[in-house]
Amino acid sequence: MTIAVLSIISGLVLLLWSADRFVEGSAAAAHYFGMSPLLIGMVIVGFGTSTPEMVVSAFSALQGNSSIALGNAYGSNIANIALILGLTALIKPIAVHSGVLRKELPILSAMTVIAAVQVWNGEISRGEAVILLIIFIGLISWTIWQGMHKKSDALGNEIEQSAILKTMPIKQAMFRLSMGLILLMASSRVLVWGAVTVAHKLGVSDLIIGLTIVAVGTSLPELASSLIAARKGENDIAFGNIIGSNLFNTLAVVGIAGTIHPMTVGPEVVQRDIPVMAGLTISLFIIGYGFKGPGRINRIEGAALLVCYVAYTLYLMLLII
User: Fold this and answer.
1) 41: nearest Cα among 245, 229, 243, 237
2) Residue 308 near residue 87 (C-beta atoms within 8 A)
């Protein structure tokens, strides 16, 4: 049991460190090869911070622990909106100026509806998982097209002025990218083994472990980057991290895991977790879109999101007790 707990802690620490190196190296390499700051912000920073969720869920599916994979993806979405955006807005209100991000908000809402429809029958088959990946590829293509044809945007301006594109030699960038990816895989295996072992020892379901410890742990890159960005006044980066991450989780993370191993979805996911995720996503769309101007999440709304997360987590803890 002690070894399993230490595996979770060490796996998370190494996972977060390697994810940071991976995103940093990817952004620097993309900038070196001429990718625009807006495109780097939308694709690499937006989606790259969800690499831990993808690798952890893939390894979970390979080992037949589809509940951890699904709990990790949906739990991360819940944590991203309620915990991370809530805490970030509570510290400093978030204003959303980027037109690209405002376009992605209704897309995220639509993808959440698709996720709810897919799990309604109690499973995600390989065919349904492939559909998610096809949608994700289409979304990536649209994102790249947007980044190539939109000359200026608030998100691109913030990326260009931030430390994300700090100068580093291409060899160093490629080394960080490859080293980060290798360590991501190794740390994910350690984390999944520790989480499964602890769950079985305590008699807790894999789903609950995925929704709580694993989901929050793999969401720490988004928490760190959003808090740092908000403190610097880079609101669109803070907001873009969450939108990109949730789209990636809903489509790519679940799609890859489901392609590896079809997922059995328990009734509690349909009755409890999907409604919470959908409700938070719709709330984010309402408060973040800005129908009469730039979207804005104020401190009161941030506090409300945070309260929702605390209440949801306490409810899950009561189920364990």
Assistant:
1) 237
2) no
Say what the pTM is.
0.84
- Give the phi and the psi of residue 81 in degrees, each rounded to 5: -80, -55
Q: What is the pLDDT of residues 46-85, one digit of tens each?
A: 666 677 788 888 888 888 888 888 999 999 999 999 998 9
| Separation of alpha carbons 47 and 242, rounded Å | 9
Q: How many helices (H) and strands (E) does the chain have?
A: 18, 4
d(CA 184, CA 296): 34
**Residue 294 corresponds to which amino acid?**
P
> Domain 2-320 maps to which CATH number in 3.40.50.1010, 3.90.1640.30, 1.20.1420.30, 1.25.40.10?
1.20.1420.30
**Structure tokens, 256:** 């890859």
25: pLDDT strictly greater than 70: yes
Q: Look up residue 303 and give its two tokens.
A: 């506090």
